[in-house]
Design brief:
This protein is mostly helical and 188 residues long. The chain has nine helices and two strands, in the order H-H-E-H-E-H-H-H-H-H-H. Helix 3 links the parallel strand 1 and strand 2.
Length: 188
Protein backbone atom coordinates (compact mmCIF):
# COMPACT_ATOMS: atom_id res chain seq x y z
CA UNK A 1 0.00 0.00 0.00
CA UNK A 2 2.84 2.39 0.85
CA UNK A 3 4.36 1.96 -2.62
CA UNK A 4 1.02 2.59 -4.32
CA UNK A 5 0.33 5.68 -2.21
CA UNK A 6 3.79 7.05 -2.96
CA UNK A 7 2.59 7.08 -6.59
CA UNK A 8 -0.68 8.80 -5.60
CA UNK A 9 -2.70 5.58 -5.95
CA UNK A 10 -5.03 5.50 -2.96
CA UNK A 11 -7.47 2.93 -4.39
CA UNK A 12 -6.42 0.17 -1.96
CA UNK A 13 -6.88 2.48 1.03
CA UNK A 14 -10.24 3.71 -0.30
CA UNK A 15 -11.49 0.14 -0.70
CA UNK A 16 -10.24 -0.76 2.78
CA UNK A 17 -11.89 2.30 4.35
CA UNK A 18 -15.25 1.27 2.89
CA UNK A 19 -14.76 -2.25 4.20
CA UNK A 20 -13.70 -1.11 7.68
CA UNK A 21 -16.55 1.37 8.18
CA UNK A 22 -19.02 -1.49 7.71
CA UNK A 23 -17.79 -2.98 11.01
CA UNK A 24 -19.18 0.03 12.85
CA UNK A 25 -22.81 -1.02 12.36
CA UNK A 26 -22.26 -4.49 13.90
CA UNK A 27 -19.32 -3.67 16.15
CA UNK A 28 -18.56 -6.26 18.84
CA UNK A 29 -18.37 -3.51 21.45
CA UNK A 30 -21.51 -1.69 20.30
CA UNK A 31 -23.88 -4.70 20.15
CA UNK A 32 -25.54 -5.14 23.53
CA UNK A 33 -27.70 -8.13 24.41
CA UNK A 34 -31.25 -7.49 25.57
CA UNK A 35 -31.91 -7.59 29.30
CA UNK A 36 -32.36 -11.15 30.51
CA UNK A 37 -35.97 -11.71 31.62
CA UNK A 38 -36.30 -11.81 35.40
CA UNK A 39 -37.36 -15.47 35.54
CA UNK A 40 -34.22 -16.56 33.62
CA UNK A 41 -31.67 -14.62 35.65
CA UNK A 42 -29.17 -16.27 37.94
CA UNK A 43 -28.76 -13.96 40.95
CA UNK A 44 -25.02 -14.57 41.44
CA UNK A 45 -24.22 -14.20 37.75
CA UNK A 46 -23.88 -10.80 36.05
CA UNK A 47 -25.92 -10.34 32.91
CA UNK A 48 -24.16 -10.36 29.55
CA UNK A 49 -25.68 -6.96 28.77
CA UNK A 50 -24.20 -5.40 31.92
CA UNK A 51 -20.75 -6.75 31.07
CA UNK A 52 -20.99 -5.47 27.48
CA UNK A 53 -22.03 -1.98 28.57
CA UNK A 54 -19.35 -1.89 31.29
CA UNK A 55 -16.68 -2.63 28.66
CA UNK A 56 -18.10 -0.27 26.03
CA UNK A 57 -18.70 2.87 28.12
CA UNK A 58 -15.05 3.65 28.98
CA UNK A 59 -14.00 3.10 25.35
CA UNK A 60 -16.78 5.30 24.03
CA UNK A 61 -16.01 7.97 26.63
CA UNK A 62 -12.32 7.92 25.66
CA UNK A 63 -13.08 8.17 21.94
CA UNK A 64 -15.76 10.83 22.32
CA UNK A 65 -13.51 13.07 24.39
CA UNK A 66 -10.08 12.48 22.86
CA UNK A 67 -10.60 11.39 19.26
CA UNK A 68 -14.03 12.53 18.08
CA UNK A 69 -15.32 15.17 20.54
CA UNK A 70 -19.05 15.66 20.26
CA UNK A 71 -19.52 12.81 17.79
CA UNK A 72 -22.49 10.57 18.47
CA UNK A 73 -21.83 6.81 18.36
CA UNK A 74 -24.95 4.68 18.66
CA UNK A 75 -24.94 1.18 20.14
CA UNK A 76 -27.07 -1.64 18.78
CA UNK A 77 -29.03 -1.87 22.00
CA UNK A 78 -31.00 -5.12 22.26
CA UNK A 79 -33.51 -3.45 24.58
CA UNK A 80 -34.18 -0.59 22.18
CA UNK A 81 -33.65 -1.65 18.57
CA UNK A 82 -33.38 -5.44 18.77
CA UNK A 83 -30.61 -6.99 16.73
CA UNK A 84 -31.21 -5.04 13.54
CA UNK A 85 -29.65 -1.77 14.67
CA UNK A 86 -30.16 1.54 12.99
CA UNK A 87 -26.72 2.31 11.59
CA UNK A 88 -24.57 5.23 12.61
CA UNK A 89 -25.42 8.87 11.88
CA UNK A 90 -24.06 10.11 8.54
CA UNK A 91 -21.85 12.71 10.29
CA UNK A 92 -20.34 9.99 12.46
CA UNK A 93 -19.55 7.75 9.50
CA UNK A 94 -18.01 10.61 7.52
CA UNK A 95 -15.87 11.79 10.45
CA UNK A 96 -14.62 8.27 11.12
CA UNK A 97 -13.87 7.62 7.46
CA UNK A 98 -11.89 10.87 7.36
CA UNK A 99 -10.00 9.81 10.47
CA UNK A 100 -9.07 6.44 8.91
CA UNK A 101 -7.96 8.09 5.67
CA UNK A 102 -5.63 10.41 7.62
CA UNK A 103 -3.75 7.57 9.37
CA UNK A 104 -0.23 6.89 8.18
CA UNK A 105 0.23 3.59 6.35
CA UNK A 106 1.53 1.62 9.35
CA UNK A 107 -1.20 2.82 11.72
CA UNK A 108 -3.78 2.19 9.00
CA UNK A 109 -2.62 -1.40 8.48
CA UNK A 110 -2.41 -1.97 12.25
CA UNK A 111 -5.90 -0.54 12.70
CA UNK A 112 -7.18 -2.82 9.94
CA UNK A 113 -5.56 -5.87 11.58
CA UNK A 114 -7.09 -5.04 14.98
CA UNK A 115 -10.56 -4.43 13.49
CA UNK A 116 -10.49 -7.73 11.60
CA UNK A 117 -9.21 -9.62 14.66
CA UNK A 118 -11.83 -8.21 17.04
CA UNK A 119 -14.72 -7.41 14.67
CA UNK A 120 -14.65 -4.00 16.29
CA UNK A 121 -14.00 -0.58 14.76
CA UNK A 122 -14.17 0.87 18.27
CA UNK A 123 -11.42 -1.38 19.65
CA UNK A 124 -9.19 -0.57 16.67
CA UNK A 125 -9.76 3.17 17.09
CA UNK A 126 -9.09 2.99 20.81
CA UNK A 127 -5.81 1.16 20.24
CA UNK A 128 -4.63 3.64 17.60
CA UNK A 129 -5.62 6.62 19.76
CA UNK A 130 -4.06 5.12 22.88
CA UNK A 131 -0.70 4.61 21.18
CA UNK A 132 -0.66 7.83 19.17
CA UNK A 133 1.43 10.86 20.07
CA UNK A 134 -1.17 12.18 22.55
CA UNK A 135 -2.32 8.82 23.92
CA UNK A 136 -1.58 7.31 27.29
CA UNK A 137 0.12 4.17 25.99
CA UNK A 138 -1.61 1.96 28.56
CA UNK A 139 -4.62 0.30 26.91
CA UNK A 140 -3.33 -2.53 24.77
CA UNK A 141 -3.51 -6.14 23.66
CA UNK A 142 -5.00 -7.69 26.81
CA UNK A 143 -7.66 -4.99 27.22
CA UNK A 144 -8.58 -5.26 23.54
CA UNK A 145 -8.79 -9.06 23.72
CA UNK A 146 -11.00 -8.93 26.81
CA UNK A 147 -13.34 -6.34 25.28
CA UNK A 148 -13.66 -8.36 22.08
CA UNK A 149 -14.42 -11.65 23.83
CA UNK A 150 -17.04 -10.72 26.43
CA UNK A 151 -19.78 -12.83 24.87
CA UNK A 152 -17.51 -15.86 24.34
CA UNK A 153 -16.26 -15.60 27.94
CA UNK A 154 -19.86 -15.35 29.16
CA UNK A 155 -20.90 -18.45 27.21
CA UNK A 156 -17.77 -20.36 28.26
CA UNK A 157 -18.49 -19.67 31.94
CA UNK A 158 -21.98 -21.06 31.44
CA UNK A 159 -21.36 -24.03 29.15
CA UNK A 160 -17.64 -24.72 29.48
CA UNK A 161 -14.69 -24.41 27.15
CA UNK A 162 -14.37 -26.53 24.03
CA UNK A 163 -10.81 -27.83 24.14
CA UNK A 164 -8.67 -26.99 21.11
CA UNK A 165 -11.23 -24.41 20.02
CA UNK A 166 -11.83 -21.66 22.58
CA UNK A 167 -8.29 -21.78 23.95
CA UNK A 168 -6.70 -21.74 20.49
CA UNK A 169 -9.02 -18.96 19.34
CA UNK A 170 -8.14 -16.92 22.43
CA UNK A 171 -4.41 -17.17 21.78
CA UNK A 172 -4.80 -16.54 18.04
CA UNK A 173 -6.76 -13.38 18.79
CA UNK A 174 -3.96 -12.10 21.00
CA UNK A 175 -1.39 -12.96 18.33
CA UNK A 176 -3.32 -10.96 15.73
CA UNK A 177 -3.81 -8.08 18.16
CA UNK A 178 -0.10 -8.10 18.92
CA UNK A 179 0.73 -7.88 15.22
CA UNK A 180 -1.67 -4.96 14.82
CA UNK A 181 -0.29 -3.25 17.91
CA UNK A 182 3.28 -3.54 16.58
CA UNK A 183 2.24 -1.81 13.36
CA UNK A 184 0.42 0.91 15.27
CA UNK A 185 3.26 1.74 17.64
CA UNK A 186 5.99 1.48 14.99
CA UNK A 187 9.20 1.73 16.93
CA UNK A 188 9.11 1.02 20.63
Amino acid sequence: MAAAEAKDDFSTRSDSVLNLIRYLDTDTVLCWAPTTPEHLREPERPQLRDQQIAAAKPMLDYLSTRVWPGLEIWPVDGDVVGIAGRGQPVDTREAMMGWIRALDVWKFVGFERVVHATKSFVIGARMVAEWSQHGDGKWGIEEAAEAASIEVAFQTRQWGEVEDTHDVEKEDSRRQLGAGWLMIVGEV
